[in-house]
Design a protein that fits this description.
The protein is mostly helical. It is 77% helix and 0% strand.
Length: 476
Amino acid sequence: MLTILGFAMIATFLVLIMMKKMSPIAALVLIPALFCVFVGKGAKLGDYVIDGVTSLAPTAAMLMFAIVYFGVMIDVGLFDPVVRGILKFAKADPMRIVVGTAILAAIVSLDGDGSTTFMITVSAMYPLYKRLKMSLVVMTGVAAMANGVMNTLPWGGPTARAATALKLDASDIFVPMIPALAVGLLGVFVLSYVLGKRERKRLGVLTLNEVLVEEKVEETETVLVGAGSGASGPGASGTDKVTGGSGSGTDADADAEEGDAERFQVLDPNRATLRPKLYWFNALLTLTLLTAMIMEWLPIPVLFLIGAALALTVNFPHIPDQKARLAAHADNVLNVSGMVFAAAVFTGVLQGTGMVDHMARWMVDVIPEGMGPHMALVTGILSLPLTYFMSNDGFYFGVLPVLAEAGAAHGVTPLEMARASLVGQPLHMSSPLVPAVYVLVGMAKVEFGDHTRFVVKWAALTCLIILGAGILFGII
């Protein structure tokens, strides 16, 4: 019964948010509370919620101060050169922008933290998508998949969990998996190219000065529409001028295009918060912070708390300026931290009522006896739905040891089982139980249901590519 109710609760949650019948926060709180009553443990709901909040409180704290830290770094101009580099590569070509999104997300994912990856990637790419009227779910989907592949790094979490659960060395699991993961990342890049080509076909390819003129036309029309006359004249003449100029091929036009590239800024180059004299201090502080995260010198929430305090104090020594920066990022902090605490209700009820344990045992029990020698393949396939519907802790510490024991009875080594268990990570990073995904959709201003509908099929395909490559290379 608990197995059925567990799957029913997850299905109800996904259906309601994908159909936009409830907001994610409301669904994460009300649905598990209702199912907790159905299970007959409504009296213990408070205990389950407190346990869930307690387990996720460090994550919420990390996200709060990470948003403040990276928000300040964006304000002071640390990422402006990165944005300019992406702009120089992408120009106004939707295909290049989507590929650039995947590359940027993969590079930033080297720090091993999904939340910071999404904050940096969205901060850099969101204005481009908005100005060119590109699909924002393409951005969130590509970023999530690239980060999902890179999340298998030994310091990213899943590999360390698998190594701990099966008492293995993390490097023995990860290093042989590199070729399969490289194929998976290549698959994400190819997919981003295909999605970018689709966006290019839908929107066409503009030059940067055409985008600037179009923006000016829209602004002019907005101003003149109240007067009721002359709205189309300036737009027509401005567009004709751009078309003629872009086709002449002269050096002057090339210089103009380069000048437009400078003016087509996704971050205001003249904003009052810029601190060019402190650029190298901020770069060193960020590098030190990321190094400390990777080396695990201190817990990540503590590192971001200290980092945010230092960034605010050095860049904005006056208290009113510090308050202004905190207020500027308060919306993101509140939305994301609120979503995390709401997710704590969901995970608390899942674990507290025993639904997760029953679901895991049921999944293991339904595996046919004849599949025993192929338990690595079975584990790889099961990692897709299981890491999507439960936390990494639940899967790696609750399910993987049971699967590994079943595999060992048929001669499948724990190393093969551990490697196969990493396959589902590209899909896991879009799970409603992953706090970082709320950073992604929140900063991109995308409905979680829209993101889910778009990304699930492509992320599952990426997982299967990694699994296929692992089998082909004899890794799994």
